[in-house]
Amino acid sequence: MKMKSAVVQFYVISLLLSSSLFMLSNADSSPCNGKCNVRCSKARIHDRCLKYCNICCGKCDYCVPSGTYGNKDECPCYRDMKNSKGGPKCP
Q1: What is the distance between the alpha carbons of residues 14 and 58, in angstroms, rounded to a whole number?
Q2: Is residue 55 in some structural domain?
Q3: Which of 24, 36, 84, 89 fits 53 for a cystine, CB–CB 3.0-4.6 Å?
Q4: DSSP-assigned beta bridge partners for residue 82
Q5: Is residue 90 in a domain?
């Protein structure tokens, strides 16, 4: 009985690990990742910049302004998104 539960646990853990690795490899293929990596390359808080850039990019038909700062007129949707306090949502 213990052997069966150990085998089942091993199988479940293996399945979870392989599916999470698959998800990580697919995350890199998003059209937003490359654009947001460039946009956030000089950000002091890199992880937060990437998080919000990817959210905005996804909602704005994969549009991310060029460069690391400014140029938001290239993507009006990205430019006009606001956070809950009324400030700019997108980096």
Answers
A1: 31
A2: yes
A3: 36
A4: 88
A5: no
Query: pLDDT tens for residues 60-89?
Result: 999 999 999 999 999 999 999 999 999 999
pLDDT tens per residue, range 20-74 = 434 443 445 589 999 999 999 999 999 999 999 999 999 999 999 999 999 999 9
Alpha-carbon span 29 to 32, nearest angstrom: 8
Q: In terms of residue numbers, what domain contains 66?
A: 31-80
How far apart, in whole angstroms, are the C-alpha atoms of residue 81 and residue 9? 45
Number of domains in the chain: 1
Contacts for 56 with CB less than 8 Å, ≥ 6 apart:
64, 77, 78, 81, 89, 90, 91
